Amino acid sequence: MTLGISDHLDWGAFDEHLYMLQEKINTYLRFIESEEIYQSFPPAVHTTKKVIEIFFEYEPPSQAVLFLNHVTNILKELCIELKIRVDE
What we know:
This protein is of the alpha/beta class. 47% of the residues lie in helices and 23% in strands.
């Protein structure tokens, strides 16, 4: 089961952008951990792999990449994969 985040913001307001991204990831994490995902998407019951995929319009700066690497490691411990794609 893949949950997608569409990130169309540029990185001009870095702190605000990172905070908003963190909140979106946390919302999806709560959605998965609370098992609400199974009520909203019953076919998810039959999947073991959970993925959060972020679609960036703009390349994340190095500071954001460090944050995303940290999040990747945390989610991996919860058996959730984080994927990142950048439109080019």
